[in-house]
């Protein structure tokens, strides 16, 4: 990934950090899970209690950085006097061997917090990197990559933050902030019109309604009923292109269905507004980052 590409991905809007108040319980829970009933047996036996150390977070491969605050809080939780000095910030392009941050403080605390810090940092950087691979593929098409609710339990806010860092945008955060009418809703309601009518009657005027369609016939019904957003699910490119043409000026269009960096460009060139990709959160590969002396 070139520096210009990385800059283009992050130039749309700055991504504000998540507040520590949200992050600290996740970090504390992870540390408690790791410390178990007796603490860090290995480090406590080998490293003197008064030993101080300076270690560095270093990238092992190229990608996009995300999750620095989680690493900072992990080290700080075990040594309130530690100093975490970032060299880069979330959203930065990483190259192999590049220094990310320096940590000064209790050697025991640094080694004990290492795995929790790296677990969060590597995973969230992997999500940001996966998102960037799609965002890069569809650059200048007018389409945007968006995530889904296919997130790891307990990590949704973090993963969706990493998606934003990687140049993507967020779909709904949960079941309570938007309506998405899918095939099972339609089947149980007895049809598109009835499902839509019930949804409109059941939510307030500020809640957006999206309808999933699989065919052009379903799309025509949805558009005739004034649906605001349509999810065009698993359509081939020709059908997708026709669907976008039908919906233009009438509804926002979102494509979904096993979209990869290799196929995303062709999907975006059909004219869709959004491309929904689930694997950037639920199956993103971690980015290799290490802690070095």
TrEMBL record:
PANTHER family: NICOTINATE-NUCLEOTIDE PYROPHOSPHORYLASE [CARBOXYLATING]
Protein role: Involved in the catabolism of quinolinic acid (QA).
Domain Quinolinate phosphoribosyl transferase C-terminal, chain residue ranges per copy: 127-292
Domain of life: Bacteria
Species assigned in the record: Delftia acidovorans (strain DSM 14801 / SPH-1)
Statement: the UniProt record of this protein carries the keyword Glycosyltransferase: yes
Pathway: Cofactor biosynthesis; NAD(+) biosynthesis; nicotinate D-ribonucleotide from quinolinate: step 1/1
Single GO cellular component term: cytoplasm
This protein's name: Probable nicotinate-nucleotide pyrophosphorylase [carboxylating]
E.C. no: 2.4.2.19
Segments traversing the membrane: none
């Amino acid at each position: 990934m070139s520096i210009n590409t990385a800059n283009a991905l992050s130039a749309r809007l700055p991504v504000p950090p998540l507040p520590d108040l949200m992050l600290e319980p996740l970090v504390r829970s992870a540390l408690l899970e790791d410390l178990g009933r007796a603490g860090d047996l290995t480090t406590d036996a080998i490293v003197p209690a008064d030993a101080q150390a300076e270690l560095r977070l270093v990238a092992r491969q190229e990608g996009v950085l995300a999750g620095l605050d989680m690493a900072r809080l992990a080290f700080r939780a075990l040594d309130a006097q530690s100093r975490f000095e970032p060299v880069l910030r979330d959203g930065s392009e990483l190259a192999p061997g590049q220094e990310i941050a320096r940590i000064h403080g209790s050697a025991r605390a640094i080694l004990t917090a290492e795995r929790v810090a790296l677990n969060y940092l590597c995973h969230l950087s992997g999500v940001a990197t996966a998102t960037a691979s799609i965002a890069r593929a569809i650059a200048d098409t007018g389409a945007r990559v968006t995530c889904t609710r296919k997130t790891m339990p307990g990590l949704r806010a973090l993963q969706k933050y990493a998606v934003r860092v990687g140049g993507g945008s967020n779909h709904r955060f949960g079941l309570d902030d938007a309506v998405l009418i899918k095939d099972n809703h339609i089947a149980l309601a007895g049809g598109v019109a009835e499902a839509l009518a019930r949804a409109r009657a059941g939510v307030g005027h500020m809640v957006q309604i999206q309808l999933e369609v699989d065919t052009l016939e379903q799309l025509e019904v949805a558009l005739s009923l004034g649906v605001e957003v349509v999810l065009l699910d698993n359509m081939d490119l020709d059908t997708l292109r026709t669907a976008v043409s039908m919906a233009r000026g009438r509804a926002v269009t979102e494509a979904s269905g096993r979209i990869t960096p290799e196929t995303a460009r062709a999907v975006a060139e059909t004219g869709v507004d959004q491309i929904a990709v689930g694997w950037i959160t639920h199956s993103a590969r971690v980015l290799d980052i290490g802690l070095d002396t």
